[in-house]
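As noted in the main text, all predictions were made from sequence alone. Below is one such record, for DUF8211 domain-containing protein.
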Amino acid sequence: MSHHRHACIIHHKNLVLYCISKDNKIPDSSLCKTFKDFHASHLYNRWTKKKIYQNFSNRLGISFTTSYHAYSTNVIATKGLDFIYGKKYGNLQFTPSSSPKVKKRQEARFNALVRHTFHNTKLDDNALTDDKLQAARRHKLLFQENQRFTTPIKHLRYKKKFVEPSKGCYTFPIPFPESTTVSVPVTVETICNVSSVASTSHGNPISPANINNWENVPEHYIPLIPQSAIYEGGRLNQPSRMKVWKKKLQPLAVGSDGWLAHMKEIYDHHESMTEYQQGKIDAGIQWETTPDQGEYRRDLCDLIMQVTNNKHDYEMKL
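Prediction:
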């Protein structure tokens, strides 16, 4: 079984029958009213899991990584960008074949692809590097190892521009900007100034509900405290800066019940991702391959064992 699966839009939902990887689990099509909802839910799941996909091309002798990016609602409301997701490309590596003849053909194909791309954009060898990078981004071409770019997914967009999207207007889940986390805070005062203290420059006294209480903060939460302030709404539904400014929202006080509930979501997500990554590493060691391939082989082996057990149980009933 191969990861390179294709199907038309009518039969695309049937791929769930052959999807092995648990990380890329396609959402249940019975919960989606339309194929657009199905596709949007699939992209949402891939974005929330933050998985980096490793792509290989034996024809060109290269490998690169891709991942999904959700555009901030602040950009949508201020700049009028209506794209929901984008796709990140980067980490180009040359992985030529060990055979000299095959390696030579791979290099010739890759160089021909680069020349063809720049020729279509009317760029010669003496063109500026910025022009080449812009043309490569337009044609989704990686030709330098340190090159990275993000291209929008154009077939899935928000309904309105210059308006902050609302979940109630869509029949499928939409992303919201996540809080960025820091590894370890330098001092408690730095966290206090950055994350959760309301500004008092206008002479407004701090209410008792907004007083920080660091004694209630567990030690295992401290390395995961985000740099930005925490507001009500959950980990994936934090308000944008424009919304905070317009509605004059107040951040949650450090150590309050709402703040601790938000940090519990961040901690649980961090623990689940750590456990998942460690499971992939263990599978890669077990199968003596990469973590992604190890996970795929482990899941495939589990599926074969499940089918075998079901068949054995059925034969025992006869």
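Strands lie at 53-57, 62-70, 85-94, 149-152. The chain has eight helices and four strands. These features were considered when defining construct boundaries for the mutagenesis experiments described in Section 2.9.
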